[in-house]
Amino acid sequence: MGVFYLTISGGEPTHYEKLTELIYEAKKMGFFVSLNTNGRFLDRPLLHKIEKSGLDQIKLSLYSTNGKEHDRIRGRRGSFKYANAAAILIGKSKVRLVVHIVVNKHNYKRLSDFIAYSFDVNASSLSLNYPENDYSEKYLLLSKKDLKIFRDEILPQAIKDYHNRKKQDNIVLDRKSLLNLSGFYGNKKSAKSKFYDGVYWEKKVIHKKCNRPNVFLLIYPNGDVLPCNGSEYTHKPIVGNVRKESILGIWKGEEMQEYRKNRMDFCKYCPMMLHAGVSIATTNNLKYSSPIK
């Protein structure tokens, strides 16, 4: 199948008692292995174990660079303390650190702070993400007013700060990262997505544009297989179960082929093709500094 990238996610995967064994086996098979975490249980002993198992990358969720604001958005008191401690630990390790943020109405004015924080903790890259599945409650979505402030004031300043920090640390600017950053939340003159409504695409456009069902599978702990990132929210369609059939069989099966052809209505709410990566790494190792992973 040519699969090379494996993400271990959750829930919170650091709860899983066989995590190190899973990473070790995946590395033996040749995968680039990435772990999504909020950092709550990622202490020095666990990091040492998973680093020794061969883990390539950790994506650490951060909601704000301000502790109180982070905890309020996260809905859990003390969560910033653990996330920040984890970021510092990972940044000192051999594991690639990606600071993962959802830019929303509660934290969008801190974009420059997120960039500075990522440099300070020795991250490899900063992952900029849009709110997902928030079109109904709109707890995180930026309003039209927020979008104007972001495009006119916050983003231009963040781009300047990114330039300045790269120069300060004597790092060659990455053109793709600059494009990703400058295009985040759309060009203020030409953006067509209704970001304020959580509608990111016209259905006919995203059905043609999105390649996720051609490169991705989501596997639940019970073995159920879903065809794309968006199906994580709809919990359907289930295109197979790895406890009953091979992944290759599922990949080539009728259910998967049907989904690739027809997709689903939820696609217009899915920002997966818009999320952006910004290179932070100070290393000359291009694989390490790539914002794409």
Automatic annotation (TrEMBL):
Keywords: Iron, Iron-sulfur, Metal-binding, S-adenosyl-L-methionine. The keyword Transmembrane helix does not apply. GO terms for molecular function: catalytic activity; iron-sulfur cluster binding; metal ion binding. It holds the Pfam family Radical_SAM. CDD domains: Radical_SAM (cd01335), SPASM (cd21109). The keyword Cell inner membrane does not apply. Residues 1-165 form the Radical SAM core domain. This is Radical SAM core domain-containing protein. It comes from Candidatus Falkowbacteria bacterium RIFOXYC2_FULL_36_12.
